[in-house]
Design goal:
The protein is mainly beta. It is built from 1 helix and 17 strands. It is globular and about 55 Å long.
């Protein structure tokens, strides 16, 4: 396959399929080839956020309107009182996530999440009342995990699993197209398959090491024809 910087994370998700027409595409902002984030809405009516679509985690969280600390100030914050579809968590759980670069904490709630017009109902997510200081300068508001439920904090179903279960995406797969220059416009997250405009040739499929991260075996890396 000839890549146009195309990352085909074509998830099988137990081969579940629906057919709804063209895949939904979310525009992705590329910041120095280091941060890739895009828009979503949470609640009814939708409140706007930008999130990292993170293949290395599996939870969705955004700052809460009840967060008044410095790291929350520059970000969009979710107000549960302005959403008609908000539901508190029946068990009153607190979501605590520790990343390599910091930690976040806040109550679990349920609400509708909208991605490129695709509405996913009753998503369990964190509304964070604590963000560590490194998030104060982040260009994004929160994180939407695209990993597997096996690594989800509190065992919450992932947003994409719920989208598949609700039948609101074409196929049980997603893919990324990333621009080949930092800060260039044009990167996309394709929900429900792939877009042939972003690649030529055929995909090669590889078994994952486990259903947690998108981890495959690599036997050799060559640079300039030399094995390293």
């Amino acid at each position: 396959m000839t890549l146009k910087r195309y990352l085909g994370i074509a998830a099988s998700y137990k081969n579940r399929q629906v057919n709804l027409g063209s895949p939904a595409e979310i525009p992705i902002t590329n910041v120095q080839d280091a941060q890739y984030f895009g828009p979503i809405q949470i609640g009814t009516p939708g409140q706007d956020f930008t999130v990292i679509f993170d293949t290395g985690s599996s939870n969705l969280w955004v700052p809460s309107s009840s967060c008044f600390s410095i790291p929350c100030i520059p970000h969009n914050k979710f107000n549960v009182n302005k959403s008609s579809t908000y539901k508190p968590d029946a068990d009153g759980r607190q979501m605590v996530i520790r990343y390599g670069s910091g930690d976040v904490k806040g109550p679990v709630i349920s609400d509708t999440v909208t991605l490129a017009g695709v509405k996913v109902p009753e998503v369990g997510l964190g509304t964070m009342t604590h963000l560590s200081f490194n998030f104060a300068t982040a260009k994004f508001d929160g994180i939407l995990g695209m990993g597997f439920q096996t690594i989800s904090v509190d065992g919450l179903p992932t947003v994409f699993d719920l989208a598949v279960k609700a039948g609101v995406v074409d196929t049980a797969s997603f893919s990324f197209y990333l621009t080949d220059k930092p800060n260039a416009v044009g990167s996309k997250l394709v929900l429900g398959g792939t877009n042939p405009a972003y690649y030529t040739g055929d995909f090669t499929y590889h078994d994952l090491e486990a259903e947690n991260y998108w981890l495959i075996n690599i036997n050799e890396i060559k640079i300039g024809g030399a094995s390293v």
